[in-house]
């Protein structure tokens, strides 16, 4: 893939609008990306206004902008604004959807080997409390999710298919659109964890065919930490029972009666950080203005560059499997623990992350990996930064 999607001037503009890019080589975008300056300024300015004018008064002043955050998110994922709930993070969003499902003894959940630790804990909890069972579909020898095996695993007891599109400790991807076709065919609830996906690649909930879809802001969307959202398809909202409710979630119509609101905000509570909500909206707007298609092409270009250069270094093993791969590159350095690699790179002003077995337990155990180094690229990274990372890794092994 050629580097023609952004001009050099555009890349430098993105970097000029991101103060952190001048100080760090940041390859931890799948952990928490560097936010654009406009996002930081939006949050700080709102907090300053709260301090001067009062929280409720400032919220009233910005009510249209706060409301528009739902519209922007809806544009991002091709949903309706009343199908969006804004929450603190992806785990809260995912859990709000999962625990609202009315599981009964004998129900089955189908998932993949790439599922995230928080979700696996929820499955184990449901097994103990509700008497459900969980089926894990392992990837094939090439590292691809086998759709035929999913089809075979479906039974009349299958209540939910839940998958993470991009795992925490691997660069492969789960085919969520094709899985959605199977879910719709059998009328099974479908929950997608898009924590690592949103802001990295185009997402269309109508095309995916999912019922529920959870996202964090801090990763590829470049939003503040403490932000996220949940998409819930309008047609199934009434089937889900929120586990937490307040006077925003529901209306008290009598001392012993209440009516839950009829949109996705039934999964919100009244109190949240309005400054962060505005920051989330600004980050989504920033990404939409650049173009998610372009962002995805740039990420793929840089990820391919990094994988090619890492493969040429003796002593480095790449652990990404599957035909479709993303902007997360996972690898090991021979003779050096992953945490030590991260520490040594940090001393050279390069940020990477360490993926531990617990984060994606089934996948990591299957591949006998205790930890990996995770480098995750974004569109504001450069080819020069890729080269610096690889040179430092080479020197580390000398």
From TrEMBL:
Coiled coil: none
PROSITE patterns for the chain: AA_TRANSFER_CLASS_5
Pfam families the UniProt entry points to: Aminotran_5 (PF00266)
Cofactor: pyridoxal 5'-phosphate
Keywords: Aminotransferase, Pyridoxal phosphate, Transferase
Domain Aminotransferase class V: 26-387
One GO molecular-function entry: transaminase activity
InterPro entries per UniProt: Aminotrans_V_dom (IPR000192), Aminotrans_V_PyrdxlP_BS (IPR020578), PyrdxlP-dep_Trfase (IPR015424), PyrdxlP-dep_Trfase_major (IPR015421), PyrdxlP-dep_Trfase_small (IPR015422)
PANTHER family (alphabetical): BLR4730 PROTEIN (PTHR43586:SF24), CYSTEINE DESULFURASE (PTHR43586)
Family: Belongs to the class-V pyridoxal-phosphate-dependent aminotransferase family.
Descriptive protein name: Aminotransferase class V-fold PLP-dependent enzyme
Organism expressing this protein natively: Mucilaginibacter jinjuensis
Organism lineage: Bacteria, Pseudomonadati, Bacteroidota, Sphingobacteriia, Sphingobacteriales
């Amino acid at each position: 893939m050629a580097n023609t999607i952004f001009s050099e001037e555009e890349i430098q503009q993105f970097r000029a609008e991101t103060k952190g890019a001048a100080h760090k080589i940041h390859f931890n975008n799948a952990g928490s990306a560097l936010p654009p300056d406009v996002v930081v300024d939006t949050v700080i300015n709102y907090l300053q206004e709260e301090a001067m004018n009062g929280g409720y008064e400032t919220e009233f002043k910005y009510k249209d902008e706060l409301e528009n955050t739902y519209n922007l998110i809806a544009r991002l994922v091709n949903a309706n604004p009343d199908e969006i709930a804004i929450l603190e993070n992806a785990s809260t969003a995912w859990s709000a959807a999962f625990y609202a499902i009315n599981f009964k003894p004998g129900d089955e959940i189908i998932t993949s080997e790439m599922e995230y630790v928080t979700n696996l804990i929820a499955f184990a909890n449901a097994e103990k409390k509700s008497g459900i069972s969980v089926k894990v579909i392992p990837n094939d020898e090439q590292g691809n999710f086998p759709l035929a095996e999913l089809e075979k695993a479906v039974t009349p007891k299958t209540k939910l298919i839940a998958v993470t599109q991009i795992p925490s400790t691997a660069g492969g991807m789960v085919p969520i659109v094709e899985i959605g076709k199977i879910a719709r065919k059998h009328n099974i609830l479908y929950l997608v964890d898009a924590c690592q996906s949103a802001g990295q690649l185009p997402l269309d909930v109508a095309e995916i065919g999912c019922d529920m879809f959870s996202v964090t802001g801090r990763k590829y969307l470049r939003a503040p930490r403490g932000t996220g959202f949940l998409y819930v398809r309008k047609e199934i909202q009434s089937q889900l029972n929120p586990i937490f409710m307040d006077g925003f979630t529901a209306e008290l119509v009598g001392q012993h009666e209440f009516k839950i609101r009829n949109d996705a905000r039934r999964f919100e509570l009244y109190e949240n950080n309005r400054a962060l909500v505005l920051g989330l909206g600004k980050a989504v707007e920033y990404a939409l203005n650049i173009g998610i298609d372009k962002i995805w092409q740039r990420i793929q270009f840089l990820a391919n560059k990094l994988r090619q250069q890492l493969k040429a270094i003796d002593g480095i093993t790449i652990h990404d499997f599957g035909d479709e791969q993303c902007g997360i590159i996972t690898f090991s350095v021979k003779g050096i623990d992953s945490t030590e690699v991260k520490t040594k790179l940090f001393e050279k002003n390069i940020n990477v992350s360490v993926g531990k077995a617990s984060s994606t337990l089934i996948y990591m155990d299957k591949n006998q990996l205790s930890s990996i180094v995770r480098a995750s690229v974004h569109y504001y990274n450069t080819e020069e930064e890729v080269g610096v990372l690889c040179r430092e890794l080479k020197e580390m092994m000398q």
